[in-house]
Amino acid sequence: MAAIRNAAKVAGLVGGAIAASSVQAVDLPEDKAETMYHLYDGGGVIAQGPAVLIRKSMLDRVALSGSYYVDAVSNASIDVVTTASKYKETRDQADIGLDYVVRDSLIHVSGSKSTEPDYLASTLNVDLTQDVFGGMTTVVLGYSHADDKVGQHGTPGWIGTAHHWQYRLGVTQILTPRWTASANLESIADDGYLGSPYRLARVFGTFVHENDPTTRESKALKLSTTGDITPEGAEHRRSFRAEYRYYWDTWGVRGHTLELGYNRDIAPGWLVESFMRYYRQNHALFYSDNAPEQTLYVTRNRELSTMHDFGPGATLSYTLKSVPGKYDVKLSASYQFIDFHYADYTDVRTGKPYSYKASVVNTVLSATF
Amino acid sequence: MAPLRSRSRPLGLVAAALVLAGASGCAFKPIEPWVKPYERERLADPVMKTSLNELPGRQQDHVYTVREGSRGATGVQGGGCGCN
Question: What are the pLDDT digits (tens) for B16-29?
Fold first, then answer.
């Protein structure tokens, strides 16, 4: 028990540093409850709903967690209004998880189930987090496996299945008393029905059902750094974050994501988090806005076109009540603006390259105890 | 003379490496952690977190996954959806 307590103590000191990156600290996650209302509004799609998460530790070495996430979608996107009719549906996702501390390692096992009227996804995640080098380096190894069932409205039963394997490696390094850096590598392999039974492609100006390959392999590498940039003697803390992710896959998609963040305490109990994100990609090998020839694989999926998006986001948090060592309750509100531009996806209603703007909003009431 | 030179070159390199290693005295000395636990207070401050809460990250990850061709290495575990 003493060893566990010591490991937890050291890990607790670096907890914030690791949380600053996308890998976990070697410590039990804190006891927490979150409730969120979320909204996405853009391109004719409105997705909104509640979400809740609760986690409680026990015996100093185990934490159990559960969450539920609802996406109520009203879809009148350009794909839908130009080739089908507007529809509404709800996606429910339930997760349960277990964290277990052994010496200076944290084992995380979780499972999730996502349910839509025409899509079922079951996922199992396993992650091992290990502190090394006197707590200055944290290494995370992770694996996920997902089995999906794909359906189609109006067709009884399932029309296909898909399977996904994900392998993750993350390293976070404390560089100085003010700066950390991390690297995350993730490899994903997919097999099965990877397209949409509803989406249409265009060949010689005629709409036909898309046909995607049944396998895909991708890799993504993210490098990030976070630093405390508070001037000496300044009253309010502030931090800076820079992230870059490079993505590549066997479908020919190459993606670049750049994100810069700036956080600042503005008054006792008030915290502002802000960021600017830019993303761009080239189109998949079999993507075509209007294919000039018949090929085995063809898609007009905007997600696989040459496109870019960018926009700022900010979160304002306020501590409603805090009793040090016992609990605190926080309220936060976030807004993000995203501007999407497609280089080779034409709006068939206007004949011009398609673009739209979106808002991503959420409010969270959270408590740690 | 040429064969002699070529035989003596590897030996010379090994000898030089040993001399350098001995002279530095730290060739095999492990690197010590240079930021002590008591120096990590700033890194644990909430202002250093990407986000105070966990659920917004799932929303954000879902928004990107549905609309962009890239995926992975975000630090958010996927829950699966009909995102294709």
Answer: 655 555 555 555 67
Task: Provide the token pair at B24.
Answer: 């530095």
pLDDT, tens only, B56-82: 999 999 999 999 999 999 876 555 555
Q: Which helix (H) or strand (E) holds B63?
A: helix B55-67
Q: What is the ipTM of this complex?
A: 0.90
Furthest-apart CA atoms within chain A: distance in Å: 72
Say what the pTM is. Answer: 0.86
| One-character DSSP codes across A170-212 | EEEEE-SSSEEEEEEEEEEEEEE--S-SS-EEEETTEEEE-B-
Q: What sign does the CA torsion over A156, A157, A162, A166 have?
A: positive
Where do the structural domains in chain B lie, given as residue ranges? Answer: 34-68
Report the residue from A166, A239, A358 with minimal CB separation from B47: A239
- Whole-angstrom Cα distance, residue B50 to residue B28? 38
Q: Which domains does chain A have, with CATH numbers?
A: 2-368 (2.40.160.50)
Say whether B40 sits in a helix, a strand or coil. Answer: coil
**Parallel, antiparallel, or unpaired: how do β-strands A119-132 and A137-152 relate?**
antiparallel
- Residue pointed to by tokens 């398609």: A354
Amino acid at A168: R
CB contact under 8 A, A220 and B35: no
Q: Give residue A343's Cα distance to chain centre.
A: 25
Distance between CA atoms of residues A36 and A365, nearest Å = 7
Interface of A with B in 209-238 (CB under 8 A): 212, 218-222, 226, 228, 230, 237-238
